[in-house]
Amino acid sequence: MDVLGIKLENCYGIQQLDASLNFLGSPKLKGSPEIPPGSAFSIYAPNGFMKTSLARTFLDFQEGRDSQDLVFPARPTSRSITSDPATPITPESVFVIKPYVERYAGAGTSTLLVNPKLRSEYEESVRNIESTQEDLLKALKEVSGWPGKTSPASEIKEVFQFKSSYEFFAELADVLDGDTRFSDLIYSEIFNDRTIAAFRAGTLHEQLQEYMSKYQELVDKSPLLSRKFNHAGAADVSKSLQSNGFFDANHTLNISNGGERLEISSAKDLEALVVAEKQRILGDKELSAKFEAVDKQLQKNAELKKFREYLTQHPEILTELGDFDGFRRKLWNSYFNVVQPVLSSFGAAFSSAKGVITETARQAVEEKTKWTAVVTQFNERFYVPFKLLVQNQQDVILKGETPKVVFEFEDGHGTCGVEEDKLLQVLSQGEKRALYILNVLFEIQARLESKQHTLLVIDDIADSFDYKNKYAIIEYFNEISKVPFFRLVFLTHNFDFHRTISSRLQISRSRRLFAKKNQGALSFVQEKYQNNPFVTWKKGLAQNSAFLVASIPFVRNLAEYCHGVASPHYLKLTSLLHIKADSPSLTVGDLEVSFKATLLDQTDLKLPNPEAFALQLIYDEAEALAVGAHDDVELESKVILSIGIRLKAEEFMIAKINDPAFVNAISSNQTFELYSRFVSAFPGASDQIVVLSQVNLMTPENIHLNSFMYEPILDMSALHLYDLYGKVKALT
Known about the structure:
By secondary structure, this protein is an alpha/beta fold. Helix 26 runs antiparallel to helix 29.
């Protein structure tokens, strides 16, 4: 991924972009410097140019979506993002880092590994186990009559209260008792939300207990039946004997009935004997009364009436409901016995994989995992009022779960655990962004561990950060920029961040770019001033009149510091930034005197055309820029336009106000004072007032600049300044 090609048309407002980002170095050629290889580009774009649109286009590529023009959807969209054939770019190899996402969790967060080889063996074993478990649950769903599309897994877990379904089913395969007598019952007809709630209610539960107590009392007194050999058991014996041809072989069965021994020679006789005893017990008046009390409870709503109907079809259920939790287990045990072959297959699969699972679990507990290191790194580097811990270390590694991050909030007086929702409500925007950064670190670490060749498109990641956190994230990117299979493209409209990231990462001159527009077409050009622009301007004062004019506000600031506001040099230069009485008469020679007196390394300065009027030189330079009307990013061009705009505006207002005494008395904030007087004197001049208010808004920061902060003027498109310059010239 050493050469990145980007060709776009009509992608979220980018009408056209054809750019190539070359991460390879190039040998020194005659007349040009050597370009060292590098892993990062920093692209600065003024507000409204293309930063967010380009990031969004890359995100579409990453997530497999088509790009479009949202405002003009009918315009044909074209997107081509390519790289060199050696490592072609794919959606998986792109990671777009947005400025902020409140609840972001990257796809790679849970893939930080203990041991890649062991993890691979573990995943293969788990796939086999999960496949056989899926077969088992499908069989249990069918035999139990479980409704809907879901499996009964959660219901089984609730009934048997196990932690690991793997271990539960594996152990169950060895302890089956073969009892299938309840397997023809439909589980959900007996146990559902309504019936379980009713069973747990005090009245029905007590009445069921009373019924079962009386029933057992009658069974205990029965000459034929007992608690172990009840009518259900007798029916099972009859069924088993008949199916195995016991009576067909002329065998007989001796039954003890109250001390009297009866010889039974057929299944029919046995069933008749059991039914008669059963009817005698169930016909008991006291037992019948208790059943009626239970029956009354089962007619309270439609769901329970449905259960009552099922109960009448399967009366054997009633005697089991006194211990309904126990009966739930009996039902599932019946189903387990029916699907015994599938259950045994699962047990075999689990047994064969148990060694790998145990070893992986051991490493997961013992090793300090990579994602734990990420959390530690975050806690140590970022200044936020909370600490992070990860609870589910083993499940993250073994089951691929997303790390469960817990927060400890500290306010200087104590520490308290807090949930993420509440934490987000109390954090500042910068602190929320720091929390988002943690998830970004997870994703990057996952790609680092898997050695995934990745293009990271980083969209103003440090916005709203305080300086400590901003430099923490810059230092982190400095570290990962040294990873040989990572490529970084920073997109920002914050010039200070662009300058800082370029310096800290030692991004070469050819990879420090400005976005530029020309008739709708976007392009990237090498940043002209990569150090202090005023050094370049000073060297060209005599050769480049644009440098000379643009230096006026800077030298004026220095004159203020060096000579004071009463010095002739400060006053002369002020008269070229505001219209004063002497402004029209000041010459280029006057400029030379003040520059030489203030800039000690310019004592030999010789400016051409010293007799020319300085004010006219300013207007000539501004006019030349306005005629070309290129959306130029150069600093000096915008400074010159801003000076010309303000001077033209003041000339207009002074002429309209026509009060020399008022104008001469202004000692500070002259443009604003003139504007206020104009608005007061000409309230009906709404069109002119709108233009003049724009002058007040757009030009002051552009003129009062210094060597430390000139971002505001860079952020402004030159097209806005051309437009305002034309409007000011047209004022009458």
